[in-house]
Amino acid sequence: MSRVSILSRLSATALVAAGLVATGALTSASQAQIPREDQQCFTPTDHGSSAARGGFGPDHREISADEQRAIETRTKNVLAAQGESLTSAATAFAGADVPVYVHVMRSKTGAGDVTDAQIAQQIAVLNATFGGQESASAAVTGFTFTLAGVDRFNNDQWHADRKSTQYRAATRQGGANALNIWLVDFSYLGIATFPWDYARNASIDGIRVQYTSLPGGSATNYNLGETATHEAGHWFGLYHTFQGGCTSTNDEVSDTAAQSSASSGCPEGRDSCSLPGTDPIHNYMDYSYDSCYTEFSAGQSARMAQMWTAYRG
Predict the structure, then answer these.
(1) How far apart are CA 262 and CA 281, in angstroms?
(2) Which residues are catalytic?
(3) What count of Cα atoms within 13 Å lies in the side-chain half-sphere of residue 236?
(4) Deepest of 212, 250, 278, 289, by most Cβ within 10 A of its Cβ?
(5) pTM of the full structure
């Protein structure tokens, strides 16, 4: 079933009846300053072939090849200390329900607001995409999402994603297992933090999402709610499918074909790498249009289980 069909069948009334309701505003005013751990990316208006969903680099902090290797070693060690291996963590994982806190950062005049129905539809998209409902070949990851709270703020700087470490520290809710989504109006579609950074930067953990990318928003080609899916993929520990370029290591997932660069649009048959397989343009971790996205792979599902066990479980 297509995501458009899924959304059309999930009325706001039904979603609210299912428990996807907004809660009251938070009032914390922490002024804590935390080192920035991510980088901006993803403009919804620039679709150059080399930059795909942006032109400003990755939608997360830079991960060098050396650090990538160190993260893999660290993860194995963390799991070993828990009595797990990469294989056991993946095979024994039975799924987890992720509480989601949505923070709507409006301007002083209320610009940038989204409806409760849009938020409910966004949660529905996350459940559909992580539930393997958009393709027969899509992995069922075992993760489900429940809306735990919604708050709204009227602050021009926060609305424009200024003082982001401050506003995230002031508003973040829940522990390592809680997905916080800040809806802002910036030049990008999304920005995410990684699970292995939670221990040292817990107060900024989560994803920032262009509010117009929610279902029914105005971000052309990116308004079906898939930006949140893509960024949540990073939050669970996935790299882009083109991480590391045309190499055997690539994104650390064996069943996503190596890809030398990001895709743009939905270029069927694209093959940017001499290694086996065509580019996984339908994978949520490429830079394709929302309408082109249909799946996480089984290998990505296993990696998310490993990272969850190591850093978020």
Answers:
(1) 9
(2) 231
(3) 29
(4) 250
(5) 0.85
